[in-house]
Structure formats: structure tokens, C-alpha cells
Design a protein that fits this description.
CATH topology: Rossmann fold
Number of domains: 1
CATH superfamily: NAD(P)-binding Rossmann-like Domain
Distance between the termini: 56 Å
CATH architecture: 3-Layer(aba) Sandwich
Shape: globular
Number of helices: 8
Strand order of the largest sheet: 3-2-1-4-5-6-9
Strand content: 5-15%
Number of strands: 9
């Protein structure tokens, strides 16, 4: 199946920066009608103005997705403005890089709230409108939910326990909803990037004191991930691991789980030995 988004209303979360922003730019080139949301109203309005200057139809709906009132206002505002909703792109997220032993309940709840509960409740609000999109289509159109999770949702990574927990939950919810939403005509797609070189990545981490080596400089460019997300939507790809490292973990878990487990444990021990020798 090949899906066109020309003239379709796409709600992109986390659109003010990073992957979400680049996805919005690519969807604009495909002729989508863009509803953009993020917490930063200034950045969001600048993006909407920039896309409009390029000839796209775009509107900013700033808000905090962890706030139930904001979620309701955003979704109802999109439908009121454009008359419908055809695609939900869940791109917003947060990350914490640090040891569980030195973390806190506050961090765990914050990560789960942003990475799991907020997108799940966005799906709950969007689902009736996506169902209506399918029921009123006259050209075989199928609405979609695209969940940008992480390869951490397939294998737990040391020093990222809260992040992995949130992404595992999000991945499992995605798989369950994919089966449930078939009867509504809604496709539920999953994209699994690795470490992404986003705008000021390290600046936006809740913590940055993990005990393994992460190559932030060599992380995946957000443009690469955005390309994969848009391709997944257009080609209706159910699940896509983006980049060699993500694909290696994705494939390795299926074929060589003991080898992947050994590799992860080895990274922790190597860091511990370096600390002891310093």
C-alpha cells in the first residue's frame, strides 16, 4: 500500500525542534496540511510561519501534552480549524541518561508521563476523528498513527532505565493498538531510532551522568530519522528500525539475544574499570 498525504491533516507532536520539526518540513513538501504542537509557542509559531512562506498550510497549536486540558484543546482545536484529522504523529519525548541507583521517583514519573501517558492519551483523543476519516474516505484512504519510539523499546540499555521502561511500554501499546484498530480502518506504525543527534541533545536530557559511553557526536542525524518516519507513513511500514546500530539491536535480539546481553554488560564493566583506574 502506498499512502499519499496531500491534502490530509497531519498532527505532529514535538514539532518545534529535532525529529518533529524535520518531519513537519518533509510532510509540507508532500502537500500535507500541518497541525503543529509543542510546548514552545515561539519556536512553533516561527516554524508555522516558515512553512506558510514556502506555500504549505500549517497552524501552530502550542501546549503541554502532559496536561489533560491542553491535550483536549489541541485535538479539538485541530478539528475545529481543519474540519478533520487524518494522521497523528507522536514525536514528542524526553530522555534521562543516568544510573537507576542515583535516580529518583520524580525522574521516573516525568519520563513515563512524557514518553508514554501523553502520547497514549493523544491517541485516545484522536482515535474517533481518525475513524471518521476512514469512514468518510472515498478513495481508499486509511488514516494512521505513527509512533516514534526508540530501539530502547526493544532492548533495555544500561544507564537509560527510565527511558527504556517508557519506550517498552509505548512499543507494547503500539502493538496492541495495531491489532485493535484494524476494525476502525486505522493503521498503527512504529519507528525505532537509536541515539539521535537532535538540537542541543545533551542540553535537553533530564540527566547526563550515565555510566556507559554514548557517542553523542556520532549519533544519528535527525534528518535521517525524519526521512525514515515519513517513508514509513507513505509506504505503511508497520515497524522500522532506523540506522545500523538500531537495526543491529533489533535483529540481534531475535537471532542472538545472549550475544546482545553480553555486549551490553561488557559496556558497563568497561566503564567501571576505567573509573577504578582513574
Amino acid at each position: 500500500m502506498r499512502r499519499s498525504v496531500r491534502g490530509r491533516v497531519v498532527l505532529v507532536t514535538g514539532a518545534s525542534r529535532g525529529i518533529g520539526r524535520r518531519i513537519a518540513e518533509r510532510l509540507a513538501k508532500q502537500g500535507a496540511i500541518l497541525a503543529l504542537t509543542a510546548r514552545s509557542a515561539d519556536d512553533l509559531n516561527k516554524l508555522a510561519a516558515d512553512l506558510k512562506a514556502r506555500g504549505a498550510e500549517a497552524e501552530a497549536f502550542p501546549g503541554d501534552l502532559t496536561n489533560p486540558d491542553d491535550r483536549e484543546r489541541i485535538v479539538s482545536g485541530v478539528v475545529a480549524r481543519f474540519g478533520r484529522l487524518d494522521v497523528l504523529m507522536n514525536c514528542a519525548g524526553v530522555c534521562s541518561f543516568g544510573e537507576f541507583a542515583t535516580s529518583s521517583e520524580e525522574i521516573a514519573r516525568k519520563v513515563l508521563e512524557v514518553n508514554f501517558f501523553a502520547p497514549v492519551e493523544m491517541i485516545r483523543l484522536a482515535a474517533p476523528h481518525l475513524t471518521r476519516s476512514f469512514e468518510t474516505a472515498r478513495d481508499g484512504w486509511r488514516p494512521a498513527i505513527v509512533n516514534v519510539a526508540s530501539i530502547c523499546g526493544r532492548w533495555g540499555i544500561p544507564s537509560m532505565s527510565e527511558h527504556c521502561a517508557s519506550k517498552h511500554a509505548f512499543v507494547s501499546m503500539t502493538e496492541a493498538l495495531r491489532a485493535e484498530f484494524v476494525r476502525f480502518g486505522i493503521d498503527v506504525l512504529l519507528v525505532l531510532p537509536g541515539l539521535v543527534r537532535s538540537d542541543d541533545l545533551q542540553k535537553h536530557l533530564l540527566r547526563n551522568d550515565g555510566k556507559i559511553h554514548l557517542n553523542f557526536a556520532g549519533a544519528q542525524p535527525s534528518d535521517e530519522v525524519a526521512d525514515a518516519v515519513v517513508r514509513s507513513l507513505l509506504t505503511n511500514r508497520a515497524e522500522k528500525a532506523v540506522g545500523f546500530a538500531s537495526w543491529w539491536v533489533w535483529f540481534g535480539k531475535r537471532m542472538f539475544p545472549r550475544g546482545v546481553r553480553f555486549f551490553m554488560q561488557r559496556k558497563v564493566w568497561k566503564y567501571a574499570r576505567r573509573e577504578q583506574g582513574s
